[in-house]
Amino acid sequence: xxxxxxxxxxxxxxxxxxxxxxxxxxxxxxxxxxxxxxxxxxxxxxxxxxxxxxxxxxxxxxxxxxxxxxxxxxxxxxxxxxxxxxxxxxxxxxxxxxxxxxxxxxxxxxxxxxxxxxxxxxxxxxxxxxxxxxxxxxxxxxxxxxxxxxxxxxxxxxxxxxxxxxxxxxxxxxxxxxxxxxxxxxxxxxxxxxxxxxxxxxxxxxx
Length: 207
What we know:
Layout: H1 13-35, H2 43-55, H3 65-76, H4 83-98, H5 104-109, E1 131-135, H6 143-152, E2 156-157, E3 167-170, H7 184-193, E4 196-199, H8 200-205
Parallel strand pairs: 1-2, 1-3, 3-4
Helix pairs in contact: 1-4, 2-3, 3-4
C-alpha cells in the first residue's frame, strides 16, 4: 500500500520515515510493557529487546531507541545481567512505558526529582575510607563504571545499606515515584540509618 497526498503525489521520504518511526515506537512501547508485566527484566528479555532494536537500526539515532539500546548494551556488555542492572532496566522500562510521549529531557536526561528525600543541606562528599551505595540509572555510565570511579578515589562500595554506610548516591535518572521504584527500599533504609542521600549531579561535582 502506498500513501498518497491530496494531490496524488507520493509523500516525501521524510514523511514516510516519520510514519514508520511512529508505528515502530508504538510497537516498542508495547514490547516494553509486555516485558515488564511481571515487574522484572531477566537476561533473555534484555537480549531479545537488544536484538529487536538492532533490527530497527534506522531509528537507533533517535529517542527512545537510542536510550534503550545504549542502556541494554551497557548492561549486557559482560554477558551477564546482574540484579542491579536488571533493576535499572526495569526502572527505565517503567518510565518509558508509563509516559511514552515524554521528551528525552523529561524522561531520561532530567535530574532527579525534587520529591526524592535527598539530604539538605547537601553534604560535602569525601571518598577515602567512606562507604557508598549506588542505585538508580546514572548519566555517568553503568553501575560498574560508577563503582570503579568511587574505588579509584579510595571509597568503598557496598550493595546494601547498613550502619556503616556514609552515602547513598541516586542516579540522575531517578524516578519521581521513588517509593515504588526498585530502589525505593534502599532510600527508605538510608533514611532509617541516617545515611546521606545525594543525587548523581552532586556526587559528580566532587569528582
